[in-house]
What we know:
The chain has three domains: 2-157, no CATH class; 278-455, Heat Shock Protein 90; 470-566, Response regulator (Rossmann fold, 3-Layer(aba) Sandwich), CATH 3.40.50. The chain is elongated, with a radius of gyration of 39 Å. The protein has helices at residues 2-15, 20-44, 52-63, 73-76, 79-101, 106-122, 126-147, 161-227, 236-271, 286-296, 302-307, 329-344, 386-389, 408-418, 449-452, 454-458, 462-468, 483-495, 506-522, 542-555, and strands at residues 282-285, 308-311, 324-327, 354-359, 364-366, 369-379, 422-428, 432-440, 475-479, 499-503, 530-534, 563-566. It has 20 helices and twelve strands. The chain is α/β, with parallel strands linked by helices. The strands form three sheets. Strands 2, 4, 5, 6, 7 and 8 form a six-stranded mixed beta sheet that branches. Helix content is 58%, strand content 12%.
Amino acid sequence: MVEAIKKFLKKSFDETQFPRSSIKALGFIGLxxxxxxxxxxxxxxxxxxxxxxxxxxxxxxxxxxxxxxxWPRFLKKYFHILWFFCVVYxxxxxxxxxxxxxxxxxxxxxxETGVLFMVGILLPNLILMTLxxxxxxxxxxxxxxxxxxxxxxxxxxxxxxxxxFSFAYLAGFIFIYCKILDTKSEExxxxxxxxxxxxxxxxxxxxxxxxxxxxxxxxxxxxxRLLSKSSAEFDLSTQSETKEQLIDLTSDIxxxxxxxxxxxxxxxxxxxxxxxxxxxxxxxxxxxVLPNIISKYGYKNDDERKKVKLDFRDSIxxxxxxxxxxxxxxxxxxIIYNLIKNALYYxxxxxxxxxxxxxxxxxxxxxxxxxxxxxxxxxxxPGIKPDLISKLFDDFYTVGKKEGTGLGLSFCKRNxxxxxxxxxxxxxxxxxxxxxxxxxxxxxxxxxxSDSESYFSASDSSKENKSSLNLVDKxxxxxxxxxxxxKNLKEYLISLNAEVITANNGxxxxxxFVEITQSDKNTDCKTxxxxxxxxxxxxxxxxxxxKLIREYEKQQNLKPIPIIAATG
Length: 568
């Protein structure tokens, strides 16, 4: 029973906990107002008896809360309990005592009425409010009886005061009830918002991961077809061809998993509101990047793949043009994936639907500026009503898709703004819908030429690179503390005919490099052509080792060797 009462009181106190800063402010009001009113009602507008000892002790009790920062630690644990008794003393006790002392005068009756309501505001819990008033009024009567037993005269009390006091108490009760309802409503809203955020995060991950998973599924089907061939179908040339196909497919799986990891990284980055660094941007060629993105999309079947067409022709009379623009390649890919996925959603309902992806022939003027345009246009689709277009890019807004999260287009909008551009939608009901990605024009004379060419060296497909890349007579020094990564990288480089030297940490990398360069002067041992190092390693990090290698090269007058630093 006692334990239940303790739990109940604890719950009640928890429900009435004002922010400490607010209580400090209220304490300051009590500290200043009690002495001030005592002075006015004693010397300026006398209102009968006003005991200075009670007034100033109440002020001191209130003032104690303004100094809460200086309380001893053990006392801070009882902060809200002390506040409860401060309210008892400074309000119902003080004003009830003076009401009786002054024979229920009008001014003290008004004060008492205000106190009944004020306690409900300061202690928004019906039980604590009632207990506070009982303690305060009871203590006032007890104090009066002890100090003035001969003066107790209730003839001045009139029953007509009871409705006034009852109304004040009821008003306090209604205030508490409304506050409880508001609190529950706020908690419900917060809970819904939390649920919405979690749903949006889960929706984002599911929405974006679906593409790479579909791609892996298709690759798995292709591998299954290759492996299902009977041994009689294989001759030497077929075996060689199949081996190459399997190697290509495993490479595709690796690339797809990388894409999936990038998706998760981007979503978590957006969730934590991390800024995208300028180093993440690169200069991209529309002509080179679009085919790569379209080919990597996770189509469910061949029918879907056939519906997406690259509307980019090489002829002089073509209505499409190539241009260089600045963006984060992974984010651009996900933007176009979203637009393709949204368009393909209606493929079953509209079997003649075709999706064209290309560029506008001329820059487009939008809000007073010129932008180069990449478009994704579905033809023979449902179209979008004009009054809905303005809402398309709002968070959680979705139309026409039961399983839609309302996140895809808002993601597109945020990222196009991040690129310094925008995305707009135009549509004609029952005919077509066109999403235009607007990119600011890039002046290559101003931008770094090395940056402007960065995409051209990296945008060729991995299969073309593999067929042309040959590292014969090249020595590569690699360092990584993860033995699996080190082994895989070593085997890959050896398959490209490179000579590979390994190290397990930064110090070992530095020692290997010094040893090789010193041996090179006396033997036929060749200096490394490239160093690849992990950044985070025990004993010495990769970046520290790279700095020391650069210092050593300067001391020995050696030609700087390219160093690639990376981390997983």
